[in-house]
Amino acid sequence: MLAMFFWSFMIGGLICMIGQLIMDTLKLTPGHMLSLFVVIGAVLAGLGLYEPLIDFAGAGATIPITSFGNSLVKGAMAEADKHGLVGVLTGMFEVTSSGISAAIVFGFIGALIFKPKG
């Protein structure tokens, strides 16, 4: 059990460290990093490399935004097998709709509660 926590922390920290190094060296904005990490997660999922990482690191691989890219590809591939090309689009939204909905709802609630800066 302790080893699982250790590797989860190490892999999650490594993903964050890579992101910070990319931001610092290439001077990318957080929005660019968000997009880049979603694409990296999608590419790794497409190559079949992200699921073994999740099996090894657990939450260390499912919490970072790269996991969202993995979910998009996993949903698209599952629905593409059932419904063909149309399933690619519907599968991406079906699997990730709860996360997207939660982000919108909590973002709206946060905007109502807190004062904007600037």
TrEMBL record:
Coiled coil: none annotated. PANTHER family: STAGE V SPORULATION PROTEIN AC-RELATED, STAGE V SPORULATION PROTEIN AEB. The chain crosses the membrane at residues 6-26, 33-50, 85-114. It comes from Lederbergia ruris. This is Stage V sporulation protein AE. The lineage of its organism: Bacteria, Bacillati, Bacillota, Bacilli, Bacillales. The keyword Nucleotide-binding does not apply. The keyword NAD does not apply. Keywords: Membrane, Transmembrane, Transmembrane helix.
